[in-house]
Each structure stands twice: as C-alpha cells, then as structure tokens.
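Quick one - first record:
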Amino acid sequence: MTVKSDMEKAIAAAQSALGTYAQFASSTDDPAAKQMFQQMQQDMQRHVTMLTNRLNYINVHNKLNQQSQATQQATQQNQQNILTNKK
C-alpha cells in the first residue's frame, strides 16, 4: 500500500462521514443535535481539505509518482506511434 492510495482512501472515508453528518443535521429537529452534527460536518470538511492538499502535494513532489507518470506518458506515446504507423 502506498501513501498515495492511503490518502485517497482517507479522503473517500472523510467525504462519506461529511455527507453522513450533513444528512443527520438536516434530518433532526433537536437543535442541540443539529448544532453538534453541523460542527462535526465542518470539522470533517477541514479534514477533507487537509487530506486533499496533502494528496496534491504528494502528486506534485513525489519522485516515484513522477517516474510513474513519465512511464505512463511514454507508454501512451508508444501506443499512439504504433497506431499511427499502422495507418
């Protein structure tokens, strides 16, 4: 498991929790519970933002990720060259 995939899983989990808290806040008539769920929703939004920022940083600065992207681009270019030469 890589840090990148862990971050992606963490973001998905945080987004799911954010949606759950939003749903709970909108479906309750209890003012104290509504306030609590809204606060939890705001906290989770901060988590999503922090995780997303970190994932973006990893995508830009991780040398292994850059090598992987370069390899993928080279493979795509080779495939396009093969298709072009077949015509």
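second record:
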Amino acid sequence: MANKQSRFLIDTYFAAFNAGDTKKMESLVADDLVHDVNQGERRVGKDKFWSFNVHMTRCYKERLTEIELFVNEDGTRAAAEFIVNGSYINTDTGLPEAKGQTYKLPAGSFFEIRDGHIARITTYYNLQDWIDQVKEGEGEQVPEEA
C-alpha cells in the first residue's frame, strides 16, 4: 500500500508542477525538505523551496512530458525520468540572456518519501545542453498559447 500512496504523491507533485500550482507542490513536501538542484546549492526547508519556486516561475515556463515514474516496494524512494519542455522568459543570473527561447531536454529526479511527504528532491539534467539550446534559439520568441 505504501508504494501506491507514494506513487500517488509523486504523480500529484508532477501534476501540480505542470499546472504551475506551486502552493500545491509546497503542500506535498516536508517542512525539512532537502532540495538538491542540478549545478546548484542544497536548499533545506520548505521556505527555501518556496523561494526557489518563486525564482523559477519568474525565469522559466516549463511543462514535463514523457514522465516515467519508478517507486520502490516500501514506498520510501522514487525516481522519475522526463522531458522538460520550456521557455526561457527572464534572464537568470550567470546564464545567457532570456529572449523567450524554447528548449527541450531530458532530466531526472530522485525522491525520498517520509510520513506521506516528499522529504528530498534531487534533480539532474545536462546544463550545457540547455545553454546550447538557449544560445541557438536566441531571438526565437515564445509562441502565444491559444
């Protein structure tokens, strides 16, 4: 049963991510969440996760597709592989200038689950691939959504 509950928890997290519902995402994580992002510093605590989400929402618009989720038998660990489909909407510190470029890159996340909440999120992707796509797409505009 723990496996199914954890699968539902992570599925709900990804659905909230794709809906841009950061409040829902934050409700699913533990107060002492450990959040490791690719090429970045470790953030500990729900408040740092909130700050990260504010920053990401300002700089990027992303949707995850082709999500493959794996949960261990006792439901304490999970891993997901997915494709990040994004638009770079505001320049992020130390990165190329944002001009609405689009990108698509594979990524993966690892999760630790404790007491019905996500206790750790570790995400990896190829940053150089992202930079190359953004540089190639300079001047490309974000398509208007219908």
